[in-house]
Amino acid sequence: MPNTRDIRRRIKSVKNTAQITKAMQMVASAKMRKAQQAALSGRPYAELMNQVLAAAVAGAGDFQHPLMEAREVRKRAVILISTDKGLCGGLNTNLLREAARFDKDTTVYICAGRKGAQFIARSKRELAAEFSYKDIPAFAEARAISKFAQDLFLQGKADSVDVLYTNFISTLVQKPEIRPLLPVGRIQKLESGVGGENVGEDLGVAKQEYKFEPGAGDVLGSLLPHYVNYQVFHYLQEAKASEQSSRMVAMKNATDNAMQLIKDLTLEYNKLRQANITKELLEITTAAMAMG
Question: Which residue has the higher pLDDT, 248 or 288?
Answer without folding.
Answer: 248
